[in-house]
Amino acid sequence: QLLKEIILANHAAENVILLELFPHKQKTRVDFYCTEDYVGIKTVCLTELLLEGKQLFYLKNGVKTLITRIYNRIIFDDLQQQPQEIQDKGKLLLADLDVEWVPHPNWFYKISKYTLPFIKHKYVPETNFLDEIKEMPTDLENYVLKPLFSFAGQGVVIDVTPEDIAKVKDPHNWILQKKVKYANVIVTPNVPAKAEIRIFYFWKDGEPRPVATNNLVRLSKGKMIGVRYNSDKDWVGGTLAYFEK
Known about the structure:
Layout (H helix, E strand, L loop, with lengths): L1 H7 L7 E5 L8 H11 L2 E4 L4 E3 L2 E6 L2 E5 L1 E4 L3 H4 L4 H6 L10 E3 L4 H4 L16 E3 L13 E5 L14 H6 L6 E5 L15 E9 L8 E10 L16 E3 L6
Parallel strand pairs: 1-2, 1-6, 6-7
Antiparallel strand pairs: 3-4, 4-5, 8-10, 9-10, 11-12, 12-13
């Protein structure tokens, strides 16, 4: 119910869309189909948007339908890997339109790896913008090199060398992060797996803080978490964590 309230707000479901880039080809497409079922909105590809003045439309069962609110799922890094004509279409994300966003595309930059260097906490790995490091650590094997705005682990260098650092042409778009050692604590029929718990937060308009609502546990036996690093492994993937009250 809370998800529905956040996505729809006070708009009719037919005027709200889930926006993605080629949604039916995405690995997360099952999420989109469930959202359609739970919330009653349609999933629309960026390439299918129709612009008239400052208004956006989409075709619903062949009928041109006004869009007043967008549940945005597009990742900019994914967009920037597309042909130029699709990138040009993506400029709509930053245009002055008569629509509401949930969340706004800029939040991809606001809440992302970009925030990590600003957070100093015992549970946050030491992280620095690459261009701000005055003296490079001599123990680079204890660090991870990450592009700021990539997704699904793309571009991440796990075993960092001075040569990897030297190859970076835009250090302001990269971070060097203290490596976290994942413990192999999940027992499986063969070798144990490591786990990462991700917490889902919902932030309703007008509320002072987001609220934790759900979680996703990702099991891995590879060097990194994620499907592409575990394609030859078994007893890995996604599951759910239960917490004691």
